[in-house]
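Reviewers asked in the last cycle whether our approach scales beyond single polypeptides. To address this, we selected a multi-component target totalling 543 residues and predicted its structure end to end. The input consisted of the following lines:
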Amino acid sequence: MSSHREAPEISKDPVADSTDVYAFVSPDRPDTVTLIANYIPLQAPDGGPNFYEFGDDVLYEIHISNGQKAEADITYQFEFHTRIRNKFSFLYNTGPITDIHSGTWNRPQFYSLTRVEKGRSKVLAKNLECPPVNVGPRSTPNYAALAAQAVHTIDGGRKVFAGQRADAFHVDLGSVFDLGALRPVNHLHLISMPDTTGVNSVQGFNVHTLALQVPKRDLTRDGNLPTAVGSGKSVVGVWATASRRKSQIWDARTGRYVGHGPWKQVSRLGNPLFNEVLVPMAEKDLWNARPPSKDARFAKYVDHPELAKLLPALYPGVFPNLAAYSKARADLNAILLTGIPAGVVPGFQNFTGPVASDMLRLNMAIPPSANENPLGLVAGDAAGFPNGRRLGDDVVTIELRAVAGLTLPLVDTSFTPDGAASAIADGTTNTNAGITGTFPYLGLPGGGYQTVPGTTAAS
Amino acid sequence: MSDTSRRKFLAAAGAGTAATAVVTLSGGAAQAATTRTKGAATEPVVAYVQDPKAGVLYLMVGEREVIVEDHDLVARILNAAGGR
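The resulting structure, written as structure tokens, was:
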């Protein structure tokens, strides 16, 4: 998955597990950028009675690098606290929740938003309300209205939302993790099976979303509006983290863990699938604990990705040119670790300096597309991945094809991609809840009552 | 820990905005009764000896970490942990 359960350690800590990061120029407010970081993967909507919520013991952060050094020049911090209104009830809600202030919501959650720049912290807002989760038509009868109440406008032309939404990512997990199978081309696999259509494994699951919409000027290093595509000042690097206190002590008096000491990073996410697919299992936990600026040690996994060797092995005869290519993958290095410099793609660049670092890179001077192409930049839509990432971008197909060699001619004209490089896909389409036209854009989360679980098949 | 070194430690622990302070303490025989000074921590403290062979103690207090290099103090903790 993009980063759902992507490393051994964080897969045991879903509350801190970042699943996807998005950064795009807001289509309905093009003078702003929307930053989204999702957490808590694969939420079954009916997962009560203790429904999903952000961790009060987790520090969630969205980082911006605008100084060309892959460092966090600006950080937005989210810190949560929950309350129990009725300590004598086991219920999440003691009646219909018709308003986010409703007394029938027994476990409301609140948060503060802090902006850190140059070591200085400024609390932008406190005690902002999250919405409840979507329990069902009796408990949360007008969920759209509840969610809308949790969109907060704060000083500086900013908007913020923190709460449950539908996952926007689509991928065939069941297939790709079954020895790299792609259902549409099952017959070509080393262990051949009949071709079928892809299955969107994420369909029907929710996540918890941190969404922030800020003026572009909030993110540039000089505070000016970015208008020149060719300027380094127009490009920002974006990644999200989650941190826990260094020490957690079990307090048997309360039956809870208590944190002590400084916050330590336990989860990180910039480009989709980076830690998931490129970093070996033995180093995934370490990767999650490090900042992008220290990613040079992982560059060899980008330059010579394991997946590029697996594709020709798993699909014999399909990727002969890829199999024969032994040089470092400068295309993947540029896309994922430095940004694409000027001169590679006409009229485009999102270079953030030479420091090898996994960040989502957004050139804010590029306006949103009137007609989004989910294949983004490789399909000629410069407003899409890997120029930032929009909710509708098909990052699985884009990255799969890039690893298969489709983007290699951009930097090595001697290479001819295999025919399959421009065709392979996992066969899924975006069958998730529809993206909305307004902030926070992600679809409303599936309701516990309304959502029907999938089927199970053992053989 | 001597009173003198104790004061150094506490001063460093409370100084600055960095989450982690590193303090090297001068040696000195353990005293039987060390009194708390004005700046002593009032919150719960977690002490961690990561490497029993090194004389380094990690103290986690609030959102801070204080790293104390004190072979004598670490030795006493190791002795206590060993039941002696």
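The interface with chain A takes residues 17, 19-20, 44-46, 48, 58, 60-65 of chain B (CB under 8 Å). We regard this as preliminary and will revisit it once experimental data from Aim 1 are available.
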